[in-house]
Every structure is written in structure tokens, then in C-alpha cells.
Amino acid sequence: MTADFYIVATPIGNLSDITYRAVEVLKKVDYIACEDTRVTRILLDKYEISAKTFDCHKFNEKQRAEKIISLLREGKSVALVSDAGTPLISDPGSELIRLLLENDINIISVPGACAVTAFLTYLPRRSEEYAFIGFIPRVKKQQIEILNKYKYTNCVFYESPNRLSETLENIKAAFGEETKIAVGRELTKVFEEVKIAPVREIIDYYKTHPLKGEIVVMVFAGENRDPEENDIIQKITALKEEGYCDKDISVIISKLFGISKNKVYKLSIEN
């Protein structure tokens, strides 16, 4: 009988931030597939978990999938963990899960810590809506394209400490020095810090404060635009992604929502 495959969230920093269920699952499975076995071993030793481990990362997912499927069909249970947080959330595992599903493997998710949700609990937001884009691209042009796409939605992304300053300068240049952002680092750890301020202040702050650890950033949605215009722009963006031109978009939205066609067209060509 084929065994179950578990996706298990682990702490993002503080090792105490693991659920009882996660510990129970990791203690009962036969094998644990780890992004880095050395990192996971620290957690396993703390909770006296003795399951066998092997590496499973973005460079060997396909090969490891064959091993995992074979183990599961032998009746051996397997869990997947990343170095920190929830697997597949800007972490390896997507290709593995695709192959497991193709082979009719039963997958069980054991939820827990995630840097994005931990970060968002610190931030006052006008709307629950946000866009998470994973690690932001390194190239300035690509950064601006993505941030423009979501400039009327709270946009959350990961960044490395050695690239954060450059990314903040790009945001300042593209959207203005008063653009409101939040930066979180070392979440759940001893030196945890979350700063919320205009981008110019954040840039100045990190000129004199060392940047270490994992970084999460949110660029706040444009707060000066009329809420109705924000809603229209979101509809425009959705239609543009489907390939509609500005003229067709103005007709569609005008007919469906009773909004001035000229107003929609103007917003469409501006965005």
C-alpha cells in the first residue's frame, strides 16, 4: 500500500515555533526530505526526531521524486521540509509535488510558520488584499515592471540583505521618495525588526544599521488615489492580462459596471 507524503512547515527562526502536529508527523515518518540536511538536523536534534534524512533541493527535485515515489510505494512514509518556513513558498518542492500528483500520491499538508504571514501581522493595511511575488528579480527594469503591475495593491516580496539597498533606491527613483514601505528582518529571532516609513527614511536608516538575515518587504498600495479608481484599475489590469486593448476594455467595463467609457479609457492608457 502506498504511504502518504507530508509537506511540513518548520520554524522561520525561533525553533519553538513548530506545531505539535509537525513534531508528531516528523517523529512518525520513515524519511524526511530536506532542503539542506545540516540545517534540518538542528531542528530534529532539538525535538529528538530520528527519521532518516536525505537532501531534496531545486537542483535535484526530479531525481529525488523518483526515489520518494519508490519509497512511498514500498509503504515508507516521507515528509518534505525546507530550511525554514513552509515548503513551496519561495522554496523548492513545486516540481516534486507535480510529479507526485501525476503518480496519484496522497499529499498531506501540515501548516505552520511562514515569513509572509508573520510579517503581515505587523502592518496596518487599508485592505486585506496583497500580492506576494516571492523573491523580487535582480534586474531594475524587471523590478519596476512588477511593482508597476501591483502599484495599487500591497506588494510583498523577499529580498537578500546584500541587494536590499539597491532595490530600495530603485523604488525611490521609480515611485518617489515618499513611497511608503515596510521592511522586516530576522523575524521571530532575537534581533527581529520591522520598520515602516517612507522609502527615503528606510534607505537612510540602513546606511547606519547592519543588514543581516532574511528580508521581507512590502510596498504599500498607492493611498492617494480614489478607491473607485483603484477598483477600475484592477479590472483594467485583469483584462489587459487577457489581451484586450484599451478601447475594448473601456467598452467592456463601461457596459458591465456603468462607469464612464472615457474615464475607463483614460485610466487604461495611463496604466
User: What is the total tally of β strands?
Assistant: 10
Tally of individual domains = 3
Mean pLDDT: 92
Let me know the largest β-sheet: 5 strands, parallel
Please state the overall shape, judged from the principal axes of the Cα atoms.
globular
Terminal CA distance reads: 55 Å
Order of strands across the widest beta sheet? 3-2-4-1-5
Q: Give the helix tally.
A: 11
CATH superfamily grouping of the largest domain: Tetrapyrrole methylase, N-terminal domain
| Structural classification | alpha/beta
Radius of gyration: 22 Å
What is the string of helix and strand elements? EHEHEHEHEHEHEHEEHEHHH
The portion of residues forming beta strands comes to 15-25%
Note poorly predicted spans: none
CATH topology of the largest domain: the name is Cobalt-precorrin-4 Transmethylase, domain 1
CATH architecture group name of the largest domain: 3-Layer(aba) Sandwich
Quickly name the level 1 CATH class of the largest domain: Alpha Beta
> Considering DSSP H and I runs of 4 or more, what fraction of the residues is helical?
40-55%
